[in-house]
Amino acid sequence: MITKNKTALEINTELDLSNTIRDFTNTLVETAHYKNYESASKRYKNDQEAQKALQEYQAKAKDLQTKQMFNTMTQAEKKDLERLWQVFLEYTSVQGYFDAQGELQALCRACAQVISDNCGLDYAAACGASCCG
Predict the structure, then answer these.
(1) CA–CA separation, 79 and 86 (whole Å)
(2) Which range has the worst mean pLDDT, 43-52, 65-74, 90-99, 106-115?
(3) pLDDT(131) > 60
(4) What per-residue confidence (pLDDT) applies to 1?
(5) Is the pTM of this model over 0.85?
(6) What is residue 65's three-state secondary structure?
(7) Backbone angles phi, psi at 48, to 5 degrees
(8) Which residues contact 16 (CB under 8 A, 6 or more apart)?
(9) What domains does the chain contain, in order, with CATH numbers?
(10) How many Å separate Cα 67 from the centre of its chain?
């Protein structure tokens, strides 16, 4: 009898948890932070010039990867790589994307803190590397 009740309790708890997670997720995707992130992400992904700038940076970084690993990059190579990164960062769509991402991460960290405060568990630490920590 105890095993039967324990199993029913576990099922109800799992069901409640699943429903709570679903409700939380549905609420999160309706926030202005999430909608702003989605919109900024689409603008960034559709910005062909910004994508080209990122590809140029990534290609240069890949070319210099071995030199970076062995710390043999010249100052000129470092400056060129940094210049390509700065060119990429100057695009409005990139700035908007990073800003929106930061705001969404801040919201997620705040949510993780509320969860931690209410369940007595450091939620972000328990989950490992994530957007929250």
Answers:
(1) 10
(2) 106-115
(3) no
(4) 45
(5) no
(6) helix
(7) -60, -35
(8) none
(9) 2-127 (1.20.1500.10)
(10) 29
Across the range 103-117, mean pLDDT stands at: 89
Q: In the numeric block, which tokens belong to residue 49? A: 């010039």
Displacement of CA 97 from its chain's centroid (Å): 11
* Amino acid, res. 97: Y
CB atoms within 10 A of CB 37: 22
Find out whether 41 and 97 touch, Cβ atoms under 8 Å.
yes
CA dist list (Å): 71 to 43, 59, 77, 85? 36, 18, 11, 19
The CA distances from residue 69 to 62, 66, 73, in Å, are 11, 5, 9
- 58-61, Cβ contacts within 8 angstroms, sequence gap of 24 or more: 60/84
Taking phi over 0 as left and psi of -120 to 50 as alpha, with beta for the rest, 71 belongs to left
For the beta carbon of residue 50, count every other beta carbon within 10 angstroms.
Answer: 22
Q: Tell me which of 10-19, 42-51, 71-80 is least confident.
A: 10-19
**CA 18/CA 37 separation, integer angstroms:** 25
